[in-house]
Amino acid sequence: MALDSAHPATPAPATPAGQAPAERPSPTSRLRLLGTGDGVITLVLVVFLLVASFAVEGFASTRNTGFLLLDVVVIVLIALPLTLVIVTGEIDLSVASTVGLTSAVMGQLWFAGLPLEAIIPICLLLGGVLGAVNGLLVTRLGLPSLAVTIGTLALYRGLAFVVLGDRAVADFPRSWTTWALSGIGATGIPVVVVPLLVLIVLTGVVLHATPIGRSLYAMGNSEDAARFAGIDVGRTKLWLFVVTGVVAALGGVYWTLRYGSARADNAQGLELQVIAAILLGGVSIFGGSGGLVGVLAGALLLGSLRNALQLVNVPSDVLNIVTGALLIVAVVTPQIAARFRGRRPRGRPRTP
Amino acid sequence: MIPVPGETCQPRSTGVHIRVLSVASVTLDTAGRYPYGLRHTPCETFHTSEAVTLEPAPAHPAPGSVVLALEDVSKSFGAVAALRGARLELRAGEAHALVGENGAGKSTLVKILAGVHGPDSGRVLLDGAPVTLDNPAAARAAGIAVIYQEPTLFPDLSVAENIFMGRQPLTGGRRIDRRELAARCRALFERLGVTLDPDRPARGLSIADQQMIEIAKALSFDARVLVMDEPTAALSGVEVERLFTVARSLRSSGAAVLFISHRFDEVFDLCDRITVMRDGQWVSTDPATDLTVDQVVRRMVGREVASLFPKIDVEPGEVVLEVRGLTRVGVFADVSFDVRAGEIVALAGLVGAGRSEVVRAVFGVDAYDAGSVRVAGSQLRQGSPAAAMAAGLALVPEDRRQQGLVMELSVERNATLTRRWKLARFGLLSARSERATAADWTKRMQVKAGKLSDAVSTLSGGNQQKVVLAKWLSTDPRVLIVDEPTRGIDVGTKAEVHRLLSQLAADGMAVVMVSSELPEVLGMADRVLVMHEGRVVADIPRAQADEDSVMLAATGQAGRPAVAS
Amino acid sequence: MSSSTKAAAPAPVDVAPEHTGGRGAALVQRLVVVRELGILAALLLLIVATVIANPRFLSGQNLRDLLLSASILTVLAAGQTIVIVTRNVDLSVGSVLGLSAYASGTLLVNAPGTPVVLVILAGMAVGAACGLLNGAIVAIAKVPSLVVTLGTLYAFRGLDSLWASSSDRLQINAADLPTGFKSLAGARLLGVPLLFLIALAVVLLVGFYLRNYRSGRELYGIGSDPAAARLSGIPVGRRVLLAFVVNGALAGLAGVLYAARFQTLDATAGTGQELFVVAAAVVGGVAIFGGSGSVYGAALGALLLTTIGTSLPQLGLNPFWRDAAVGALILAAIALDRALSLRLARRLRGRNLRGA
After folding, report:
1. ipTM, two decimals
2. Superfamily of domain B66-301
3. What does pLDDT average to in each consecutive run of 10 residues of chain B (565 residues)?
4. Does B220 contact C at CB distance below 8 Å?
5. Which chains border A (3 or more CB–CB pairs < 8 Å)?
6. Which among A88, B218, B385, C128 could disulfide-bond with B145, CB atoms 3.0 to 4.6 Å apart, if both were Cys?
7. What is the maximal distance between C-alpha atoms in chain C?
């Protein structure tokens, strides 16, 4: 550890008996570093998958696994950058509208005769611009991201309708649309899971094992302290919004190919599902805490729950109730637990 | 220099007239302790020529009887015992000081009086009868008013609404009577000699004005017990005196005043009795006249304190930091100074003179409009703390909790936050190297912490400050800027911090120290730069720096021309 | 007070001493009024432009339709204002509206003779119960309202459609509803639609309460600084609970109005309304982080959003532009708020030189 010996010659103050804690990284603390602090949700997911595999007929089949994964791909994809945004204490509600606008533009450009090889980069660029609009309004003008992205949620969705109206463009080349649905060999696992895994690992590393990740948590907890520690808060957030826009655009491209149809109302309301997954995964809406493993578990839990209930023919309405209840339970439980542990000083006096 | 009652004095500063007030101020004057001249500043909002008069409230019990008492009160938060059998006794018509190191349990005790926390065991007695103060409203109903360190106002609401929140005068239909509200508010301000518009929003008020609103609030419901938790931390001399005048009038009208402060001169000025606490326990309660500062300090610390200002003489080296003509319109102007390696340069001045603003601009947290900063000869890009750090600057900021630390993050994350890029290999951080670095530095700084993975908010103020210092010293700076390095930390840690700064300078670091404590400035600095209203007005070498010379300059009457190097 | 307060201090560096000791109140009040006049001006501008494009826009029937459409959003915005002012938000209002609309529809189908007043009360009771649940979770478990109401947005909607699908009536049609109730939509008083008068009454009542009652002011205090509110003895939990219950009841009322106006009820009624409601409040100058804003502004915001929807086609624009225009309006509104508050801060700093 050459790095550690590079300290300046600093005096040890002369008072006796400094009792600095000398600790060795324990296995658990290393795990926490990977974001498994939200182990509960992961555990719930594992238990649920096991129970569902045995109890629900056809749940564990390759065919069903494929469907399940296809359904969560876009949610997980968008959840990746959005988790980083939420960790910094901001939020982006416009992601689903970005998906819709990208999809509409993609349809219109295809309609105009451009090849997909040209359309896709244009769409990603568009996503970046849309994200940058959010980011600039938040970081340069200092507006609250909640309000800004409620605005752009309406604006981008509206523009999607302006671009494509209520038409649908559906004549995309079969080679692309079948690829979007195809599985790896006979496993049933969709091909797209591979690039998605790469992105997941990349995001996880950035968030949990790089200086950038450290600064995200710092600014999510205290923007002032982060600035005084030399972190360029504005620029970091701006880039996060841009990346979120690009990734949402990627989601829009994939969504269009997966359903083989470009429509302005694609992915309407998806933002709430993505945010639900992230919050279920233990990320604080106020920023500064949470990890990526929890988010993945949250997204998969919501997806597989939905899937399993559909398999046993539970009406889709119940899904909504379960989703909502899960979300509330996920945020309420830690609070209640903390109070039982007595962490919140709200004691009543026992004076006579 | 020490005024006599009845006389009108005009401090050399600015033409503010202070008529020395009634009996109350005599305590101050005969005690011979003029509050640190450094905090003596002209003040906009107070009528400085009006005496404060408060009619004694008839309902108050006879002087001397015990109004409020805590008996054997204990309170724990999780595993931490904040109070262990604490006791306190407040008599009508007395000003009572509560002193103790940080972490001694004073704030918890205040919160019990305020109804924020309930005690785990023990009794609270009001006029001898046990009471349950289980929420702030109950405490208020019992006649207990609390003025916190940081004023707790509603920034969006008007001044009048802030004072009367929940107690607004009503018309017949239980509606708020706005005219009466404003009238009562004005009447209160008149009694206090304050000119504030009752209808302006509280947002943007100075700390002193905010404190005045808190006091008006306490007055408005005829408090029998006024608790002031370090109310003077952010006030200037005149403002402190104004506050004390009010406190004295309240006292003479039969209320009990509980005063908590780290400033012994103020404690001895104001208070009749002094209660000392240590480690959550009661130590002693004695009349102030029977005690000396040394005795109090010894009881607080529970051991002998080594010399507070262990300054080592150093031969200064090369100029490391050059500031030229630094100007931020409306805040500071044409600030120029040099700092050499091995030198401790103090930036002294009144609160609001622009000292913190200058060092923040130097470090790049704030922008500036003109001028330049050079570190070791090369120009520093403005507005970028990252660039400043790369050039070898470090800033230990004024507000530890907001600016110095990320309170929710662990000790190790905080300690390594500034070195996150240096600790990374190929852009990746390993838990091992972070922890090793943090362990090394917390050991060097003798941080007393449970585990490195504990949130830094669980540490005491002094230990938190050590983590901030560790965080910055680990970047191996050439220039260390410390802004109020010992504000709000206990006496023992204070001495440690001073020793550390002295040693760092001896090892060749250039140190810039912003401080509002005159003894600290005089005890530690090789040179004292004095700022007055945004300008550097004096550059006084250690040999010539004394209370008079610094105070003269700070109040804008420096005979010496301002010189930079 | 013999000597002046303002110490004749040597002029500090370049600080422009704006007029000191002036009427801060006037300033603040003026900004609020300016803000509300601004929306009003935008509204008038829009109407004038539309009238120029199509003079029939101001015809009685057209205006009545406009007011009728606006009344539901206005009631929702009034309720939402109460919640937002306390630094909370209720995203579940769309679902609560749906639930209440379906409930009142079911009530009328099963008991066609129910007096309208009773239907309204029933709808409000359903809404208040939903609000009670939201408020209880927020106030007791102390979890962020954004998350809680996102959860109940799903849950209430699920409950609604579960109810609709488990009863044998997926959709309640106009034919199923008694004529007495249906006539509510067309009812007028002095030519003004009754539904709009109800909305107006709600706005005035809420506005009067928020301004003139202690507990109303305490709501602003809570939103302005929750910690300070707790320290000054305001029962924060109870007040927040109250805000959610009132908002829920108003969403319930909106549900009944919805049933009366559209007369075709299924489990999707009010879907997506939450964003328009929050948008109306924000456009109307209610600060998203609490503490300031008025219900009158929010109502004007609701009116403006509705007018945009109806006037775009008249202006020859594709109705698809509506959402885009709403989005742009939100952005413009928050940018304006920011600019105004910066200006106010500068003014206040001017009268409070070198304040700490």
Report:
1. 0.79
2. P-loop containing nucleotide triphosphate hydrolases (3.40.50.300)
3. 40 35 29 31 32 39 76 80 88 90 81 89 89 87 84 86 88 87 89 82 79 84 86 71 84 89 83 89 90 82 64 86 91 92 90 86 92 92 92 91 89 90 85 88 85 84 89 93 84 85 92 87 91 90 86 69 43
4. no
5. B, C
6. B218
7. 83
